[in-house]
Amino acid sequence: MSFRHYFSLLLLPSTLAACGNSNGDLTTRDGASADSTVVAESTPAGLVPTDADGAMNDGPARSGGVAVATTSDTGAANREPNELGRIMIIEYHLIGDKNSTYERERGQFRRDLQMLYDRGFRPVTMQQVMDGTMDLPRGISPVVVTFDDASPSQFRYIEKNGELEIDPTSGLGIWLDFARTHPEWKNRAVFCMLSGAAAGRSFFGEKGIEGQKSEWRHKKVRFLHEQGFELCNHTLWHANLGKYGDAMVQEQIARGVMAIDSAVPGYKVRTFALPLGVWPRNRALAYKGSWTDPKSGRTVSYDFDAVLEVAGGPARGPNDPAFKVPGNFNRIEVIGDAIERSINQLEKAGQRYVSDGDPNRIARPAASTSDSP
Ligand SMILES: [Zn+2]
């Protein structure tokens, strides 16, 4: 099958997919009060770029200014570099007890990470994709792992004798444990967060839901940032942006940005995930807009580089002629064996992005592999 054919098969109407709990309803008309505690004094104006790479276990070894990247992947030598290929941006919702459309069983989640690792994938952030700074060893492919909705299932604390521990059965607990035992698996997931939705989808829990205290919310967001994860906006309470006017669209988005700024002052949010994959009628407002808080008179602006769709298949890589920033990016919902199927199809079509380990060169695939049967 040609890649073009394969790609067309993956073009699903984004509105097929909702995200969140079983009935897809995360919204609350009580958003104002739900969000009140995350509105802090700091101003979102004057946001400065943040170096998420300043964190842990980072970077290839450098020698004389040239990256000397090595990998623990013994299969890497057999993968032909192709830096024109596509990349997978995969999408998780709940991490829990069972597998369903919007839930991944926690043991399966860990097996997903292992499968990606074993097949030569290492995590990168959207920021790295957009900036072309993925710094992967030769023979290795990037994967962007996104977590939507900021539920406690992704990041839960357990309080023990006054100390907070990350619940090892939460998504983050599983990720961090995996990273400890797998070289090159860095803290580079992307958390697309709600700051004031119902059912505890408010910076990973509040009001005692799943044992999570409201006052832990900013601490969680700060922790993610300090560990190198990317903070992504997913609106205030997951409104279907196609149903509202321009003012409401901008309020939903800007209040998500304002809440992140309250947790990590000055953080430049560059990535935005559309709730339900639905664009506002005025699409430009998904990228850029502003809202003035009637209470304080303060104006909050946003200007994103990436808007994430909810589905669509593998995304264009940074060296694809049609790649552009700002731009929108397709994702792959992690349902069943969707990740493995995508990898297999990318490989079959000769479209898997594989690094050559050299940041100064763009490796092109041999013509013979570009359209194999
Ligand atoms: Zn969502």
Task: Summarize this structure briefly.
The chain has 373 residues and is of the alpha/beta class.
Structural features:
alpha/beta; 9-stranded mixed sheet; two-stranded antiparallel sheet; 17 strands; disordered N terminus
- Which band does the percent of strand residues land in? 15-25%
The assigned structural class equals: alpha/beta
Gyration radius from CA atoms, angstroms: 20 Å
Number of helices: 9
- Number of E-state strands: 17
Low-confidence runs of at least 5 consecutive residues: 1-66, 368-373
Order of secondary-structure elements: HHEEEEEHEHEEEHEHEHEHEEEEEH
Describe this structure as you would to a colleague:
This protein is α/β, with parallel strands linked by helices and 373 residues long. It is globular. It has 9 helices and 17 strands. The model is unreliable at 1-66 and 368-373 (pLDDT under 50). The strands form 5 sheets. Strands 3, 6, 7, 10, 11, 12, 15, 16 and 17 form a 9-stranded mixed beta sheet that branches. It has a two-stranded antiparallel sheet with strand order 1-2. It has a two-stranded parallel sheet with strand order 4-5. It has one domain: Glycoside hydrolase/deacetylase (TIM Barrel, Alpha-Beta Barrel). It is 23% helix and 20% strand. It starts with a helix and ends in a 25-residue tail after the last helix. The structure holds zinc ion (ZN). Residues 19-20, 148-149, 234, 238, 275 line the site of zinc ion.
